[in-house]
């Protein structure tokens, strides 16, 4: 039998298939991925060593889908960091089901190291101490990841509140958007608060 013109499986297809599985199921397993790609589980191991490498391919596919970020580290550090946070959130928001997997697996990819290098240089140049850099990055990432999940949460997250039992909460909810602006407002408010707090941590 002649070999197919297009290989049935390659690393790009594995990464894309894994993202689809994570979006649909909120988890990833080798048997489920093999079914998604129409191959036997053993066929995957001709291309990857295991689950960790598949998650790495998911990150790579996500980077290819979203394209290069457009944040400019030559701008004032608050502006550059805000642009990075928004770009990062936008990338994760395209595949929210994959967030738990991508957020808890070690970052061994050179292209991820290059991204963190830019952020570390930005913060060090701004005057933060070396010991502050990773806590600042991790704090911002934690917020971004939660915000990405919030984008796919219901527009109304607090419901069935009785005004008699919770009058203050009811007044606050009266002024809370009941569409996708809720998540956007929460992100804008939280990001502004984080950057203001970061500024206060700059060594005198």
TrEMBL record:
- List, alphabetically, the InterPro entries matched: Homeodomain-like_sf, HTH-type_TetR-like_transc_reg, Repressor_TetR_C, Tet_transcr_reg_TetR, Tet_transcr_reg_TetR-rel_C_sf
Q: Does the keyword ATP-binding apply?
A: no
Q: Does the keyword Transcription apply?
A: yes
Please, which domain of life does this record's source organism belong to? Bacteria
List, for all copies, the residue spans of the domain called Tetracycline repressor TetR C-terminal: 76-201
Q: What keywords appear on the UniProt entry?
A: DNA-binding, Repressor, Transcription, Transcription regulation
Q: Which PANTHER family match?
A: HTH-TYPE TRANSCRIPTIONAL REGULATOR RUTR, TRANSCRIPTIONAL REGULATORY PROTEIN
- What is the name of this protein? AcrR family transcriptional regulator
UniProt source species: Streptomyces achromogenes
């Amino acid at each position: 039998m002649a070999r197919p013109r297009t290989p049935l499986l390659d690393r790009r297809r594995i990464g894309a298939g894994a993202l689809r599985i994570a979006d649909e199921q909120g988890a990833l397993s080798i048997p489920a991925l093999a079914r998604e790609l129409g191959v036997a589980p053993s066929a995957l191991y001709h291309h990857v060593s295991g689950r960790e490498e598949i998650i790495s391919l998911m990150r790579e596919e996500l980077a290819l889908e979203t394209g290069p970020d457009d944040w400019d580290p030559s701008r004032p550090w608050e502006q550059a960091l805000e642009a990075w946070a928004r770009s990062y959130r936008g990338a994760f928001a395209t595949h929210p089901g994959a967030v738990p997997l991508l957020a808890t697996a070690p970052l061994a990819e050179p292209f991820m190291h290059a991204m963190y290098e830019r952020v570390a240089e930005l913060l060090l140049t701004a005057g933060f101490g070396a010991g502050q850099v990773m806590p600042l990055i991790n704090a911002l990432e934690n917020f971004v990841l939660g915000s990405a999940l919030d984008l796919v949460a219901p527009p109304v997250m607090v419901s069935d509140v009785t005004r008699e039992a919770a009058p203050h909460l009811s007044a606050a909810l009266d002024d809370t958007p009941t569409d996708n602006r809720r998540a956007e407002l929460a992100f804008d408010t939280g990001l502004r608060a984080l950057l203001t707090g970061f500024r206060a941590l700059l060594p005198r």
